[in-house]
Design goal:
Number of strands: 15
Structural class: alpha/beta
CATH class of the largest domain: Alpha Beta
CATH topology of the largest domain: Quinone Oxidoreductase, Chain A, domain 1
Helix content: 25-40%
Distance between the termini: 19 Å
CATH superfamily of the largest domain: Medium-chain alcohol dehydrogenases, catalytic domain
Low-confidence stretches: none
Radius of gyration: 20 Å
Number of helices: 10
Mean pLDDT: 97
Number of domains: 2
Bound molecules: NADP nicotinamide-adenine-dinucleotide phosphate
Oligomer: single chain
Largest sheet: 7 strands, mixed
Strand content: 25-35%
Length: about 325
C-alpha cells in the first residue's frame, strides 16, 4: 500500500510557501500488533504550524527536515490491531499532511464524539473552541458592562472568543481585515462594532468605539495592534496573549510594544496561555459549547479547501487573511 505525504524540505525564512515542502510517495508496511491504521479525512490549518517549522525551542519540538508536516487531523480507522479502536471509528489526532498514518497503541488518538462532524471536531468543538473558551474565561472572566476588544476577530478563534464575551454580557469590538469580515462580525456574529484594520486607523477606531477604554483585550495578532490596544486600557484591564500572527513570518524578532508601561499605570495584567494545558478540561468546555452552538447562540464558519495538491497553499491562506472562519482541507468523506 502506498502513502502520499508532504514532508518539510527546508526551513522558511519569512513567508512560508509551497517551496518549503516536498511531495513524497512511500510504501506502507503491514500492521504490527498494537498498531492502528488511520486514513486522514480532514486537515486542520493553524497559524502555529508556522512556528512548528522553526528550528527553535517551543511548546512542541520543531518538525524535522524530511519529516511529515505536523497537522491536526480527523481520520477514519482503516484497520486496527489495538483493542481500543475498531475499523470505521472516526478519530482525531496529529495525523499530519499525509493520506494515512499509523498510531502505536492508539497513542495520540481520541474518538470523535457521536453526532460531531469532522469539521466541528477540528473547529468549534476542537482546539479552536477550546482556545477561545479557556483563553477568554480563565484569563479574564468578562463581566456585564465590560468592553472586550478582540483582534483577529473574524478568524476561527477570535470569532468564538468575541461571541462568548457577548454571552457573558460584555460589549464586544472586533478588529479584522476588510469590509466583508467586519460586516460578518456585526451582522452575523453579534459583535457591537468592528474596526477594519486594513482600511482605517486602529488607534482612532479604538478611541472612537471604546470611549470608556478596554477592560479585556483578546489578542491574536500582536505588533502594532497590541500597541494600539495598550494605549487604551481601562484600570485593572486584562490583556490575553492568545497569539501574534502579525509576526509569525518575520525574519527578525520585533521589538516589544513601546507602551508596555501602560500595564503598570493602569494596574493591568498581560498573560499568555497554550491550549494544550486545557485538554483535560474538555468536558467542562463541551457542557457550555454544545448547547451554545447547537442553539445558534454561537455561530462558526468553516472554510473548507479540497485536494491533496492544495495542502501547502492552504496554509498560506491564514497569513494572507483569505480564510473566512476555521481553515480546513478535505481529503475524503467518512465511509
Ligand atoms: N494560545 C493558543 O493555545 C492558541 C491556540 C490556537 C490559536 N492560537 C492563535 O490564535 C490566533 C488565531 O488563530 P486561528 O487558528 O483562529 O486562525 P484564524 O484567525 O482563523 O486565521 C488567521 C487570521 O489572522 C489574520 N492575520 C493574518 N496576518 C495578519 C497580520 N499581519 N495582521 C493582522 N491579522 C493578520 C487574518 O485575518 P484578517 O483577514 O482579519 O487579517 C487571518 O484570517 C493565531 O495567533 C494563533 O497562533 C493560539
Amino acid at each position: 500500500m502506498k502513502n502520499q505525504q508532504w514532508q518539510l524540505k527546508t526551513r522558511p525564512q519569512g513567508l512560508i510557501g509551497e517551496e518549503h515542502f516536498e511531495r513524497v510517495v512511500c510504501e506502507m508496511t503491514d500492521l504490527a500488533e498494537g498498531q492502528v491504521l488511520v486514513k486522514n479525512l480532514y486537515l486542520s490549518f493553524d497559524p502555529t504550524q508556522r512556528g512548528w517549522v522553526n528550528d527553535m525551542e517551543s511548546y512542541m519540538p520543531p518538525v524535522a527536515i524530511g519529516e511529515v508536516m505536523r497537522a491536526g487531523t480527523v481520520g477514519q480507522v482503516v484497520s486496527s490491531k489495538c483493542s481500543d479502536f475498531d475499523e470505521g471509528d472516526l478519530v482525531q489526532g496529529l495525523g499530519g499532511w499525509q493520506e494515512f498514518f499509523v498510531s502505536e497503541q492508539g497513542i495520540g488518538l481520541s474518538k470523535v464524539p457521536e453526532g460531531v462532524t469532522p469539521q466541528e471536531a477540528l473547529g468549534i468543538f476542537g482546539t479552536t473552541g477550546l482556545t477561545a473558551y479557556f483563553g477568554l474565561l480563565d484569563l479574564s472572566d468578562p463581566k456585564p458592562g465590560d468592553t472586550v476588544l478582540v483582534s483577529g476577530a473574524a478568524g476561527a478563534t477570535g470569532s468564538v472568543a468575541g461571541q462568548i464575551a457577548k454571552l457573558k454580557g460584555a460589549r464586544v469590538i472586533g478588529i479584522a481585515g476588510g469590509p466583508e469580515k467586519c460586516r460578518w462580525l456585526t451582522e452575523t456574529a453579534g459583535f457591537d462594532a468592528a474596526i477594519d484594520y486594513k482600511n482605517e486607523s486602529v488607534v482612532e477606531g479604538i478611541a472612537r468605539l471604546c470611549p470608556e477604554r478596554i477592560n479585556v483585550f483578546f489578542d491574536n495578532v500582536g505588533g502594532d495592534i497590541l500597541e494600539a490596544a495598550l494605549d487604551h486600557l481601562a484600570m485593572n484591564a486584562r490583556v490575553i496573549l492568545c497569539g501574534g500572527i502579525s509576526g509569525y513570518n518575520e525574519t527578525e524578532p520585533r521589538p516589544g510594544p513601546k507602551n508596555i508601561m501602560n500595564l503598570v499605570i493602569t494596574r493591568s495584567r498581560m498573560e499568555g496561555f497554550i491550549v494544550i494545558d486545557y485538554l483535560s478540561r474538555i468536558g467542562e468546555f463541551l457542557n457550555d459549547m454544545l448547547p451554545w452552538y447547537r442553539s445558534g447562540q454561537i455561530v462558526h464558519l468553516e472554510d473548507v479547501q479540497e485536494g491533496f495538491d492544495n495542502i501547502p497553499s492552504t496554509l498560506q491562506r491564514l497569513f494572507s487573511g483569505q480564510n473566512l472562519g476555521k481553515q480546513l482541507l478535505k481529503l475524503a468523506e467518512p465511509e
